[in-house]
Amino acid sequence: KILLKTVSDAPDPFSAAVSGQAVFTAQFEVRKTDGLDASGEDTHKTFFIEHTVRLFSAGSPQGVVVLSGQNPVPRVPYDEHGEDDHKFVSVDVIQVWDGRNADNVFVADGNYVYEISGKFVRIKQDDDDRDRRDAHRQRQEESKIVGISNVLTGTIVLDNTPPVISNVQPADGSLLAVDTPASAGVFADNLSGINIASVKIVLDGIDVTTEANVTAAGFNFIPAGLADNAHTLSIHIVDDAGNPAQSTTIFVTDTTPPAISNLAPANGSILDTAVPTISGEFNDSGLGVDMRSI
Questions:
Q1: What's the confidence (pLDDT) of residue 156?
Q2: What is the pLDDT of residues 207-230, one digit of tens each?
Q3: Most buried among 28, 46, 146, 166, using CB within 10 Å?
Q4: Cβ 53 vs Cβ 102: under 8 Å
């Protein structure tokens, strides 16, 4: 009497932190017999599909019910001589899930199998109950399960954890004596994977992504000659569930060597003392002189 035809879910992978909700869709078909005929004399009956969504994983082989609900089944004309397709009522069930279990706790990240099933329920009410406007005072005279559907399954990835950007070069705070420093970084994501199209690499406010070799594992590139100065390298990525991550490093390039001047005694000097004063001046227009190197 009831058949579950199709199930689907979106988005997949799903991050509750990003998308807010996942939508499970199921299409049921119910036979028009058993009182669904709108032209029938017995109008005291109403019909519903009670449906559930259950999640299974390696850690929860018994499954956890995350959604349940009830959808009305409309009464429609029934032609017993019609084609088979016209002997069924199609009911689309849409259930919205926020990623939490019955205890209002987010379900852990992981790869899950979900299972959707339904029951065809008939409710009969007496005349007095149908005349009352207060729905909370209605008394059900009869509630009966008249059909149980087959079970269909699908898969969904739950991923609320942002990806990781690591081993970025040049490292934050680096002092470099080259104007073409090798730039690179490593990407990692524990579940849904890196969305390569989301990668954005910005150097000193300019998008240089197209200059880089970008893969799901990371990036690398050699920038054009940089001016002696402080530079900011920012990397932004998103995983396939939509979780974002960003990393920023600041480094300094200084390719101009320091100058040594006013050496004394001067080159070629002939002195009349055995203890001459030796002196000189150092100057650097960039990072300054490393005193440890003298």
A1: 95
A2: 999 999 999 999 999 998 999 999
A3: 28
A4: no
Alpha carbon 170 to chain centroid, angstroms: 29
Distance from C-alpha of 84 to C-alpha of 92, rounded to nearest angstrom:
19
Residue 203: count other Cβ atoms within 10 Å of its Cβ.
20
**Contact yes or no for 282/203 (Cβ under 8 A):** no
Residue 219 bridge partners (DSSP)? 185, 214
What would the pLDDT profile of 112-126 be if each residue is shown by its tens digit?
999 999 999 888 765
d(CA 39, CA 148): 25
Nearest to 66 by CA among 2, 138, 9, 145: 9
Residues 163 and 188 sit within 8 Å (Cβ to Cβ)? yes
Separation of alpha carbons 166 and 162, rounded Å: 13
pLDDT at 10: 95
Q: End-to-end distance of the chain based on CA atoms, in angstroms?
A: 92
Specify the pLDDT at position 59. 74
Question: Contact at 8 Å (CB) between 4 and 23?
Answer: no
Q: Which residues contact 292 (CB under 8 A, 6 or more apart)?
A: none
Encoded tokens for 73 = 């089944």
Question: Which phi and psi (to 5°) does residue 286 adopt?
Answer: -105, -105
How many residues in the chain? 294
Six token digits for residue 171: 């490292």
